[in-house]
Amino acid sequence: MDRTALADFLRRRREALRPGDVGLPEGARRRAPGLRREEVAQLSGMSVDYYTRLEQSRGPQPSEQMLAALARALRLTSDERDYLFRTAGHSAPDRFSPLPHVAPALLRVLDRLEDTPALVLSDLGETLVSNRLAQSLLGDPSVRTGLARSDVYRWFTDPGSRRVYPEADWPRHARAQVAGLRAAYGAQGSRSRAGELVRALLSASTEFAGLWERHEVAVRFEDHKTLVHPELGEIELDCQALFTEDRSQALLVLTAPPQSEGWQKLQLLSVIGSQRFDEAAERG
Question: Which residues on neighbouring strands pair with residue 118, listed in sequence order?
Fold first, then answer.
């Protein structure tokens, strides 16, 4: 670990960002350029003291999870992310590692979406990052670990995960899940995380095994979705997807026509979600 190089790199990348680059308000006039240390700490989920010590060349070696969070907070490119890991004394993660790097271009768009649910998914159906409305609608992805981070895995191993869709849509959605995983498997190969996921599901689910034998391949998200919220009931939304060039990640944006029933329910969801986050903050 090169503490001096790590400190200089973090400081330079922090100073190169403006609050608007990461979805924060500009606020009052700033005495120094870039983000404040406390803003980087907030975005990466660490204490201000811990981040400050890293910038002062006196912090402990960050874990890979912490470095992934910093790369996301500082909107690093893949090359910058790799440099961050190596400078901190870790090997640069593989492209298809358990800690996938969120594409900065998708993050910049997500930062500006505050009034509608939006999330970034990997090609294995893992929610990499989501905004508050998406968490209010679909749950908090941070509580999931291991294979359960994948929507595909949970769909075939956890019956409760299907409740977010009307039961009539389950067969169609199951086929879409498997077809998307087949595309990822073809891109990554049998020894990849996609291969690990396929082997686990073949052992765990006869339904998955039957669908896998169809060899259907497709990376597509339905243009129109009906989602089920435990308090608001069914919510009809339009879905738009923005893919990275290699199609390994997608930004999903869920919207409803103005003044429609779906739009009205999103307004209620915003209120419900804000109340829950405030209550969680008070308990924390």
Answer: 253
Task: Report the CATH number at residue 145.
Answer: 3.30.450.180
| β-strand partners of 233 | 229
28 contact partners, CB below 8 Å, separation of at least 6: none
The string of DSSP codes covering the chain is: --HHHHHHHHHHHHHT--GGGGT----SPPSSSS--HHHHHHHHT--HHHHHHHHTT-PPPPPHHHHHHHHHHTT--HHHHHHHHHHTTSPPPPTTSSSPPPPHHHHHHHHT--SS-EEEEETTSBEEEE-HHHHHHH--GGG--GGGGBHHHHHHH-GGGGGGS-GGGHHHHHHHHHHHHHHHHHHH-TTSHHHHHHHHHHHH-HHHHHHHTT--------SEEEEEETTTEEEEEEEEEEE-TTSSEEEEEEE--TTSHHHHHHHHHHHHHHHHHHHHHHH-
Range of the domain at 134: 104-283
Tell me, yes or no, whether 99 lies in a domain: no
Residue with tokens 């003044």: 259
Structure tokens at 45: 């989920």
Q: Looking at the structure, do residues 18 and 83 belong to the same domain, yes or no?
A: yes
- pTM beyond 0.85, yes or no: no
pLDDT tens for each residue of 262-275: 999 999 988 876 55
Does residue 97 fall inside a structural domain?
no
Question: What confidence tens digit (pLDDT) does each residue in 19-41 have?
Answer: 877 777 776 666 667 888 988 99
Q: For residues 30 and 137, state if they share a domain.
A: no
Report how far apart, in Å, the C-alpha atoms of 242 and of each of 45, 53, 71, 146, 220 are. 26, 37, 21, 26, 11
